[in-house]
Design goal:
This protein has 421 residues and is an alpha+beta fold. Helices cover 52% and strands 11% of the residues.
Amino acid sequence: MKLSLTIPAIKGIDAPGYYWDDKTPGFCLKVTSNRGKLRKMFILQRKLAGETVTVSLGVFEQEVTLTEAREKALDTVALIRQGISPNHLKRQQAVAKAEEEAALKAKEAALQRDQEARSLTVRKALDDYVVGKGKKLASSTSKTYKYTVEKHLGDWLDMSLRDITSEMVSDRYKDVCNLSIGSANNAFRCLRAVCGRVVKLHKGQVISENPVRILSDLDEWQELKPRDKILPETMFKSLWSALDSLENQDFADYFRLLFLTGLRSEESFGLRWENIDFDKEYWTVTDTKNGRDHSLPMTRTVKEILLRRKQFTSSPWVFSGKKVEGNMGDSEHQQKIIRKAINYPDFNAHMLRKTFATKSAETVPTYMVKRFLNHHSKSDVTSHNYIKMELDSLREPLQKVEDKILSLCLLKKSERIKRVV
């Protein structure tokens, strides 16, 4: 149907159909019905390359006015006369707009990822690593990691992990090695593990590669010589006398226990009264380097040390620290005092474990020495009854080792423990 498309005429149309304008060729009002509701849309139909092209111009009053629809129709006719398909142009423009919006979103997402990546500090990455490892990481190992990183990389902790470069790693590692190769290796092995987790967890979006890798690529890792030195027998008496004279008798007991049990330093610090059975005469360390509980029978002198300490403390820790809920901390200062007292510069706490192991090997079979030192194979059975039976069988051999060590200290039984109230 042809008519003059005016606003009154358009509003008066009440039936579906095509209503062609009698002024502009191809200009039409297309009326459709959906559930009794009329929809009036302006369209334009023209020939382009022998084919009819239909172009939507907009819904009357909802999207365009009559005047706007006529102007769009004239613009569309002009494009067709140039051989340009309006629908094709509209699709191109839609694609270009979508691509522009996608690029903008990608840029915003990249910026957000960059901000999130930059907000990940060395401290946060270290904490996440420890939490992520969970029970797979012994608490003593966790403490060692944090201590060495805080001590030697403390000024890096609040830096973004992204800002830690290979060059920084190489330079700092060399600096720390000048102080202690062992500490340098511990600190940067920890940092390597932390960075490695971040690379894998975030698929290279936070840091693309591990900055600590430079130490392997340039073969810069320094080998720490094993601490093979033991305390010479000629120094045993001097050591025991120095322990009796030590002002801090808490640390004196700590060193005595290392000397007579072969415990690791952190294991001795971790002893708790709840894991010491005076009736059955055995003790247990639960947080060990290899993750296995370590139990041994009490020898006479060790029992005396523990009983005396129990009388004068309300702490859950055998070696309680200044903090109410903590145990004693680093023993380095006390080691320095002992070195000076016995005139032996090489003395250190770990040397006592080595010395205990050596004297044990001179006294009992090798398999017992391994058991004393908590060197277990994967096939070890750890049921309660088995452990109890094994403890009983170890009591006499362990006592022989203690007697040997104390005899080399030239001590009579009455002189073995200095009683401090």
